[in-house]
Amino acid sequence: MNFAMKDYYKILNITRDADEKAIRKAYHGLAKIYHPDVSNLPDAEERFKAINEAYSVLSDPTKRAAYDAGTYNPTGGQTAQGYTYHSGSKEHGTYSYTYTYTTGSAPQGYVYYKTFGLGPVIAIILSFFVPGAGQLYKGHFLKCFLFLFGIGICVSLITGYITFLLAIGLGILLWLVNMGDVIFTPMNSKRNPFIAAILSLIPGLGQFYTVQAVKGIVLLLSTALFLALSTFMPLFGALVLVLIFYSIYDAWQAAEQLNTGW
After folding, report:
1. What class has domain 7-115?
2. CA–CA distance, 205 with 48 (Å, rounded to integer)
3. Are the C-beta atoms of residues 13 and 25 closer than 8 Å to each other?
4. By the 8 A CB rule, do 80 and 49 touch?
5. Running along the chain, 262 residues long, what does each successive block of 10 average in pLDDT?
6. Helix, strand or coil for residue 232?
7. Which member of 19, 150, 231, 255 has the greatest number of CB atoms within 10 A?
8. Domain boundaries in the chain?
9. Which CB contacts under 8 angstroms, 24+ apart, belong to 233-239?
């Protein structure tokens, strides 16, 4: 793309009648691709500067009107050059947010990048032991359900020696498909808060869904321990309810953070 043309609509890949929401969405989408901190493209910095410049004009009604009329002057304080980057990160379980904003004449505000660290590796490990668990961790709830359902079907087939061998064969095939899927399917950066809350009725499952493996394991083990102790002391039964409410709240919050930032 030849950015010297200064076709801001082309730079943001939007139509000339795009509204404010469409402009902002296009800017954030392109920024996630071409920001120098996350892109390996040799011209990423040049592209990102052009994207910022285009957004600084088209997101400002006055500048946009002047640009559309052909009277916009990119000098005299209206240029998008001379801005600086500021960045940082915020950890949350096994995922983090990297944020960037600019100062100067370029648009100011936050752009979020979701990184999952060891997330894909953890998903593979989970899926190795329990088909569907890796899909849940990667945010693919329906796939998780289908793989677990398939394993259940295989188990239900076992009524004799022949069906046992058939079930084992189907189970191995399903396990291999499960592993291939979790290895080659990318992480889903979105999480549904309602699904996260429903899963959290079993404390820890909602945390697996919202990419918080360590917290999920701790909640699952704590719940199992409290349930076992509740046979001796009813107080531990009440603590299980506390864990359920906490798990629901935490998973809901984490899902919203994954969707919108913090």
Report:
1. mainly alpha
2. 39
3. no
4. yes
5. 62 89 85 74 80 86 83 53 50 57 51 65 90 91 91 84 87 94 85 94 93 90 93 89 95 82 45
6. coil
7. 255
8. 7-115, 118-188, 190-262
9. none
